[in-house]
Write a structure and sequence with these properties.
This protein has 3 helices and 9 strands; from the N terminus they run ααββββββββαβ. With 178 residues, the protein is α+β, with helices and mostly antiparallel strands.
């Protein structure tokens, strides 16, 4: 009986942690408002990121976003694993954490477990984006093309730095395979 109660308590704790952690944004950054998901859909090239376990050793990384029938966003991430010499793909889904007019979403590649996906800067034409996770371990610079102008790079690095990110942790992605 005690084991059953303990398992229930652990499961409830995990669900609460998942719910709370997925909708967070670092305290010094603000998500874009207004945000238009229709303009955000399509293919993005990863220009830079703070590296983490699921993208380790990946170059030529892209993300493609499209609408699912249920209103969620299909996330199709691809990258070339330089150690294994092969392409990898991860398909997930994203949904807004609140107001659909604010660039705060949560994304999942593993069932009920979500992580923060917060658009904190975007140009008016939706060609370049700066995306933050739920904490300072996750940051991406994205572009509709494989490169970005120096002016955008400088602007986004300043926004990230002002928001508390250590931009020296960014790795810069090569796009040399198609």
């Amino acid at each position: 009986m005690k084991t059953t109660k303990l398992l229930i308590l652990i499961n409830i704790s995990l669900i609460m942690f998942t719910f709370l952690s997925c909708s967070k944004i670092p305290s010094q950054v603000v998500a874009v408002k207004p945000f238009y998901i229709e303009k955000y859909l399509g293919k993005w090239y990863e220009i830079a990121r703070i590296d983490f376990k699921y993208e380790k050793d990946l170059n030529n990384t892209t993300a493609e976003y499209s609408l699912n029938d249920d209103g969620t966003v299909k996330v199709d991430n691809k990258g070339y694993n330089t150690k294994k010499g092969e392409w990898q793909q991860a398909i997930g889904k994203a949904k807004f954490t609140g107001d659909h007019n604010v660039g705060m979403l949560k994304v999942s590649f593993f069932g009920p477990f979500y992580s923060g996906y917060n658009v904190i800067a975007i140009d008016p034409d939706y060609k370049f984006a700066l995306v933050a996770g739920s904490n300072y371990k996750y940051l991406w610079i994205l572009s509709r093309e494989t490169t970005i102008p120096e002016s955008i790079k400088s602007e986004y690095l300043k926004i990230a730095q002002d928001g508390g990110y250590d931009v020296s942790d960014l790795i810069w992605i090569e796009h040399n395979k198609m």
